[in-house]
Amino acid sequence: MRRLIRRAASAALVTAALATAPIAPGVALAEEQYMAVPSSRVGPYSAMGTGYYGGIIDYMQYVNMTGGVNGVTLTWEECETEYNAARTVECYQRLLTGPNGQKMVVFDTLGTPGAYAVINRMADDEVVLAQFGYGRTDAADGRVWPWVFNAAGHYWSQIAVKMNFMAQVEGGVENMEGKKIVHLHIDSAYGREPLPAMRQIAEDWGVDLVEISIPPPGLEQKSQWLQIRRERPDWVTFWGAGSGMNATGMTEAARVGFPRDRMMYVTFGGAEEDMVPAGDAAVGTYVVANVVPGTDFPLVQQIEEVVYGGGEGNLANPERIGTVYWNRGVAAAAMWIEALKNAQELHGKEGQAVTGAEFREGYEALDITEAKLEELGMSGMFAPFKLSCEKHDGSGRFKIMQWDGERFQIISDEWVEAPDPSFIRGLVEASAEKFASENNLPVRDCD
């Protein structure tokens, strides 16, 4: 499915823009910047996709309705991937050039399989692959992957944070020796992505790591949970995707008597749409979050007032405003727009569209300080971070949340990072350098 959404040019939107944010004299909303939206609204991962891409589109709509990006109007085209790698490649090809003749500058497929499927095209096509908390982890090394970013952290930092939390519950790392952890995961690149870091940490700590895979789409898990009952692990890390798979995991855990307060869900399994279908079986489940839910953020309230109040909201159910997936999409889109602003400033193109190469430089220049988050109305939504030529990942910090049966309770006061971030960074660089050597890729000098 391929469709162009150009509401920015509609009379209703222009009227709303004029009513909500007066435009400076002499600035016309004439220049356009084309953005690609490879969504996943259909299939077993639809709850994730409708929330995330709903947030992305709502933020872009909000930007247009409040004056654009220094006067530049955002336009976008949406293509349905169904969270399928082959369809992601097809959508990439379809979206590469927009109806206005511009090439896309950023691609965010919200899926590790899809990211792996297109990652080697980025440099040739001059498109940024924005892996907002997913995807190929060693792409965090910008020396090897100049066109790829992990701006909200990656899976190796995330698994280190999870294991650090387990150690705290157990009374310290010294008490982890002999503990058994099951990594229960969907059998895909996404499910296997945290394993290099997890295996190394388990070896260093003396942890017995058991890896159990679930065939996609993950709705049948009975045999895996029977194995878990036999293994009698101390903890389970659940690396699922799609509300059906994630809810099934908690339901099956309850069936075999495994305590949910010994289960830790991945960011893409830790949303309201994953918890609610499991009912009481979800209570007590831990999740990690790179973006926290909530409607108290000023930006969320402004989007609700301006975009939904103006009849331009993307969510079919506005009650999903402020949920985990929607907030994450808003945060991802905010990074696009801040990168676009940087690119305009760096290249003296305020009020003009930028190229892919210029956008890449703008993305690499992201410096999301606490002051910037406050300015955007997003303070506390995600952790501050700064990117650079070498460092293409975010802060590597997460919040720990626990489902109480109705909502998530944030149980970590501060953003939690890996016990040894330099260790994780060392793994990233070693992996990236190995890939570069095996594939005869240049390694940028970032000094």
The helicity comes to: 25-40%
Q: What's the CATH topology name of the largest domain?
A: Rossmann fold
Give the CA-based shape: globular
Can you tell me the CATH class of the largest domain?
Alpha Beta
Indicate the CATH architecture of the largest domain. Answer: 3-Layer(aba) Sandwich
Distance between the termini: 45 Å
Major sheet summary line: 7 strands, mixed
What strand order characterises the main sheet?
A: 8-7-9-10-11-14-15
Q: What share of the residues does DSSP label as strand, in percent? A: 5-15%
Structural class: alpha/beta
Rg (C-alpha, Å)? 21 Å
Assigned CATH superfamily of the largest domain: Response regulator
Poorly predicted parts: 1-29
What is the arithmetic mean of pLDDT?
A: 93
Structure write-up:
The structure is a single chain. This protein has about 450 residues and is α/β, with parallel strands linked by helices. The protein has two domains: about 1-155 and about 295-390, Response regulator (Rossmann fold, 3-Layer(aba) Sandwich), CATH 3.40.50; about 155-290 and about 400-420, Response regulator (Rossmann fold), CATH 3.40.50. Helices cover about 40% and strands about 15% of the residues. It is built from 16 helices and 15 strands. The chain has helices at about 10-20, 45-65, 85-95, 110-120, 120-125, 155-170, 190, 195-205, 220-230, 245-255, 270-275, 300-310, 325-345, 355-365, 370-375, 420-440; strands at about 1-5, 30-40, 75-80, 105, 130, 150, 180-185, 210-215, 235-240, 265, 285-290, 365-370, 385, 400-405, 410. The strands form four sheets. A seven-stranded mixed β-sheet has the order 8-7-9-10-11-14-15, with helices on both faces. A three-stranded mixed β-sheet has the order 1-3-2. The protein is globular, with a radius of gyration of 21 Å. The model is unreliable at about 1-30 (pLDDT under 50).
